Amino acid sequence: MDIAALARGPMSEARDRTMPRHSARLGLAAMATLLLGAAAFAQGDRMLPPMPIGKPAARPAALAQAAPAQPPRAATAPVVPKEWTGESGASGHPLMQASEIRKAAANFESCLEGMWPLAQKRNISRASFDKYVTGLTPDLRIMDLLDAQPEFTKAFWDYLDILVSDARIQGGRDLLAKYKPVFDKVEKAYGVDRNIIVAIWGVESNYGTLGGDRPVIRSTATLACIGRRQQYFREEFLSTLEILHRGDVKPERLIGSWAGAFGPTQFMPTSFKRFAVDYDGDGHRDVVDSVGDLVASTANNLKKDGWVPGATWGYEVVVPKGFNYMLADRRKQHTIAEWEGQGLRRPNGKPFPNPHEKAYLLVPAGYEGPSFLMLQNFSVIMKYNPAEAYALAIGHLADRFRGGEAFAQPWPRHEPVLSRDERRELQELLNRKGFDTGEPNGRLGPKARAAVRDYQASVGLIPDGFASATILARLRGG
Question: Which residues pair with 334 in a beta bridge?
């Protein structure tokens, strides 16, 4: 499988709003990159707002014993940068014009030197600044990746087939067994399901084998000085300098995606600052080469994002005939008991453990596909990466580790996948009819889905919000 061809700008409704913890975070690394690239389900790169540097997160007393073994290492062969195409970016942004990219590249050294005062305020020494900045050259191939807009994407179910494969399920089970003592202590200390942590590890980097091949310092420096995301990436660049100055990760091991995400669970430099933990007590928060630091840091991230201990992420449900699909909206949360009152049931006949939990109904492939009640922890996973396909893959993969079955209801695999241009056309046609999808950009997030739902209801169709080829054909017909 050509990961690069499927790359999402690893990145971005978060993702252009945030670029990523993950466009950045996902970079080439995360298979999630697959999800977020140009997927119809993508929302934006997952980037967190800049946070001030602080002390490393305290290591819980329960984790004080026994340093863990080292995690599997991803290949770190020398980078052989591809050439920039020399073309303007597809976004049309003024700073992505070829002439502006060349101008910024010529000013690269001066741009970096101009950030010395900011680095100094973060207690980075001049010696460290010179050590890691002197001699850096821009990686202009990143400009093509920053504005990459693949014409076609895969269907929701295709991503799940890729990300929740038999090989990935077995790989996760192997890691859970191999590092059981670490997971026992981390789960007790943070209250975060170990299976979710390993699922993130598996989806983000295929257990450390697909973490990217670019020096993070060079990538973030390039993006901090060139292109349309300079303000955001200045924080990532300065945070990368802090990581190197503190010695948390060895320079030669700080390798990641083109957007700067690194380590098996793909931390952006700014999110590393917020969540990284020194589990093994060696004075370094090394999420690249210490399994303990990696697992505890990922758990700390989820915990601080609101993880509910002892709860799951959601349930597959069977929706009765005649159901009002206008209720299938992320903004319309109800208790499980209320959903049961609407006739929703689990396909295996099992009862819901907690009828008082609040959930929203997700029907990612319309009424012909599986339906799900999503709980608080699903929203937490989406904070890690704001794509529903990504979050569903994480939750389902985690369930499969513990022996869960595949989804009971089939996906509508007969449905063709709309190209980016077709998705943009669908948005334009809906806008003309008064159903606001926002700016037509080929990304079908919650707002576009709501517009599709409203249109379906207006013409007497089942309002499931699924942007199908049938809906597009009907819109074209007037």
Answer: 359
Residue from 163, 148, 156 nearest 41 by CA: 156
DSSP 240-278: HHHHHHHTSS-GGG-EE-TTS-BTTTTB-HHHHHHH-B-
Cα–Cα distance between 104 and 473 in angstroms, integer?
Answer: 44
- Residue 343: left if φ>0, alpha if ψ -120 to 50, beta else—which one? left
Q: How many residues does the chain have?
A: 478
Q: Which residues sit opposite 215 in a β-bridge?
A: 255
Q: What is the reported pTM?
A: 0.85
DSSP state of 57: B
Distance CA 34, CA 171 (A): 19
Q: Alpha helices, DSSP H only, in 47-125?
A: 98-106, 108-113, 116-121
DSSP designation for 387: -
Question: How far apart, in whole angstroms, are the C-alpha atoms of residue 439 and residue 445?
Answer: 11
pLDDT of 175-229, one tens digit each?
A: 999 999 999 999 999 999 999 999 999 999 999 999 899 999 999 999 999 999 9
Task: Determine the Cα–Cα distance for residues 12 and 445; give it in Å rounded to an integer.
Answer: 11
